[in-house]
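Lab notebook page, bench 4
Experiment: in silico fold of construct C2
Operator: M.H.
Input chain length: 390 residues
Purpose: comparison with the prior construct
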Amino acid sequence: MEKLAVGLMSGTSVDGIDAALVRLRGFGLNTKVDLLEFTTLPFAADVAREILQCMDVKDSNSALVCSLNFKLGYLFADAVKAVCKKSNVSLRDIDFIASHGQTIYHIPKQDGSLVKSTLQIGEPAIIAYEIGTTVMSNFRSMDMAAGGEGAPLVPYADYLLYRSNSKGRALQNIGGIGNVTVIPKQATLDDIVAFDTGPGNMVIDELCKILKGEPFDQDGIWASKGNVHKDIAQSWLNIDFFKMTPPKSTGRELFGSQFTKQILQTYGHLPTDDLIATATYFTALSITDSYKQFIFPKTEVDEMIVGGGGGYNKTLLQMIREIMPNITVLTQEDIGFSSEAKEAIAFAILGNETMNGESANVPKATGAKRAVILGSITLPPNGGKFGGSL
């Protein structure tokens, strides 16, 4: 049975909402997925500021989080309308929406009196009301309830789309945060290894905003002009996170604005292009060092396939290739997929599993005690479509 669905993703880069319109056939590991259309709804500057304020424990407040939850709900609904309009698909034909939401805070491990927990906002009731269809949301919480870190969740979709009988593959996403899914050749779902590698574009983007007044380093141009201070980048790898064995996850709590402020306080005397180049090298180093520590000793990898915005940073990709010359480094586009749409497609796949009462976390990746059905289900105001087996 075919379903039309929209996957929604807003990540740690806080640049906008990705919306992927997909056609899904079947469920489980036999699922077939076609990307019909994709669009990104950029955040207005004031909305991005509110999101970043909510993420900052020093500046956030409950009233702002409450308001932003609903404000983002309307914006997520707008993203659905935009991708459907772009593809000439009626909203009435959408069977379900799978919304990751906007992560505000993520505590993957007990931290003193703070229990491990996660918060994504973007009110699903608003989306369900505005579009008139079922919405899946809150995907990370059930994995955490089962003892996992709630991340990464993309490995299930990675396995479904990219497994190979002849090649070992590493699916490296470079969004705000970097994360990898390792799929050995001829792998079963239980063979997958996945974890966060550290910062993706987050530190680079923050430096570009402060030093250049631009949201990111287009094609890695500024990084290509700067001198890399390898000793400085290497020193940043002394952070405890990089020594932790997987499963592990991280976020803006560790590599956000406070991290960048510390860089500028210590190394602000360096030329701006040098700082951007060094931050870019730090991302490359954090990725490749993770592979050398945790992947290569156990798994033969033939290809790294890069997705996310970092896939468009030519300087970053070149740095990765130079550090790991024996691995073929490709982008999603090189194999006929979309770097931008990858995570939105993944959440549409996760939503489809929820609709069919199937588990979709990978316990080996998240640390959960067992496989669980992910997400919360919000029905539209008048009932509407719900084709699942629950």
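Observations: DSSP finds 15 helices and twelve strands in the chain. Residues 134 and 234 are 47 Å apart (CA to CA).
Next step: discuss at group meeting.
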